[in-house]
Design brief:
alpha+beta, 5-stranded antiparallel beta sheet, two-stranded antiparallel sheet, 4 helices, about 30% helix, about 15% strand
C-alpha cells in the first residue's frame, strides 16, 4: 500500500481562517456540563459540553455544507462516477459465489440509479480476487448505498474509493475498506502511467510533424 508521507495534505481549516472562536458559553438551547478530566500528570482540565455530557455544541450555519450536494474537489462530480465500490468474493468458495451473485442482483433491483458492472469470476486489473463494481454519482446515493452495504455485504469485503484522476492514490491512501482488506496489484498503475506517457509522447511527436509539414 502507499506511504502516507508520499503525499501533501492541505490544512482542514483552509478557508476557515480568522473566524470567531467556537462556542464555549451557555446557549439558550443547550444545557452545559463542565467536566473535569484528570490527566496523567495530575492536571485537571475542564471542558464545556452539550446536554449529552460528551459532545460540544457546534455553531449554527445558515445552510448545509456544499459537500451535502456535490462531492468535494477533486472527486469527479460530472458524468463520471464520484466513487467506485469493488465488492470481492473468493471465486473458489461456492458459498461466497452464491452470496455475491445474490447481492449483485439485489443491488440492481434496489439501486437501479447506480451503475453496476458484470461479476468477474477471476482477478482483473489491480484486483487479486473476483469482484464486481458499483459506481456512485452523488452524495445522496453514497449516503443511501454505503450504510446499506455495511449491513448487507454479508461475508464479502468491499473497497470504496473516490475517482480523482490519481488512480493509485485513489485505490490506496484515499480508499476505505469494509471487512477483510484484500491485497491489490499496484504494478498495474505503474504500467498504466507508462502507457499513458508513451501515448502522450507519440501524440506530441505527431503534432510536431504536422507543424513541420505545414511550415515547409
Amino acid at each position: 500500500m502507499s506511504d502516507p508521507s508520499s503525499y501533501t495534505y492541505p490544512s482542514p481549516l483552509e478557508g476557515f481562517e480568522n473566524l470567531p472562536p467556537l462556542p464555549e458559553l451557555h446557549d439558550d438551547h443547550e444545557v452545559w456540563v463542565v467536566e473535569e478530566v484528570l490527566t496523567d500528570d495530575g492536571m485537571i482540565l475542564c471542558s464545556e459540553q452539550s446536554n449529552d455530557g460528551k459532545s460540544y455544541a457546534n455553531p449554527s450555519n445558515d445552510k448545509l455544507d456544499d459537500s451535502y450536494h456535490q462531492f468535494v474537489a477533486p472527486i469527479e462530480s460530472g458524468r463520471g462516477a464520484g466513487f467506485d465500490v469493488h465488492i470481492y468474493y473468493y471465486q473458489s468458495n461456492p458459498e461466497q459465489v452464491a452470496f455475491a451473485t445474490a447481492l449483485w442482483e439485489r443491488i440492481r433491483r434496489s439501486f437501479p440509479e447506480l451503475r453496476i458492472y458484470r461479476i468477474w469470476d477471476r482477478p482483473i486489473g489491480p484486483h487479486t480476487v473476483a469482484m464486481f463494481e458499483v459506481n456512485i454519482f452523488t452524495p445522496a446515493q453514497f449516503g443511501a448505498f454505503i450504510p446499506w452495504l455495511v449491513i448487507n455485504r454479508g461475508p464479502l469485503s468491499a473497497l470504496v474509493h473516490p475517482n480523482t484522476g490519481d488512480h493509485e492514490r485513489d485505490h490506496t491512501q484515499r480508499a476505505t475498506w469494509m471487512g477483510e482488506k484484500m491485497p491489490l496489484d499496484l504494478s498495474v498503475f505503474k504500467r498504466i502511467r507508462e502507457a499513458t506517457a508513451k501515448l502522450k509522447a507519440l501524440q506530441a511527436e505527431r503534432v510536431e510533424k504536422i507543424r513541420d509539414v505545414r511550415a515547409a
